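Section 5.1 Outputs to date
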Amino acid sequence: MEASRVIDLSTPLSDKEVERLKAGDRVLISGIIYTARDSAHKRLVDLIEARKELPFSIKGQVIYYVGPSPAPPGRAIGAAGPTTSYRMDPYTPKLLELGLKGMIGKGKRSQEVREAIMRHKAVYMAAIGGAGALMSMAIKEAEVIAYEDLGPEAIHRLRVERLPAIVVYDIYGNDLYTEGKKKYQIG
């Protein structure tokens, strides 16, 4: 794996943008992204299965797995650190099939999700866990657009400027978690 690069990304993502990303790349994301955790993912997939319209167009979008805290005065949002991603794994392949291009969270994903990432030309990125206040500084606007009853787990539409993340799984099957460990193994 080559040394990491820093790449500016603008949403929505295209296949061409996703194709140039490699595990280990550092990215700075600008544009509109959406938040959703497991309860919201279940509702999205239920809508898909019922052939109903989603609360936002999923094609080319990025979902950040976060349940932000309330915004303090003068800020768009409170702390916005990533949540553990595997809880979204049962729902992710269906969303990727419909055109989801990026996910931001923390932790490993299932083999099924990794295969769907490659098949549907998407990317999984990790954000720094424990740095919710830092992450929130890149969020310039936040608006609940669906499932307000879920509180912090409602779907938010965020406008971000240079939100930092690291590509973990790319469309080529590269895995930063595995490759990163190899760098430090002896023998």
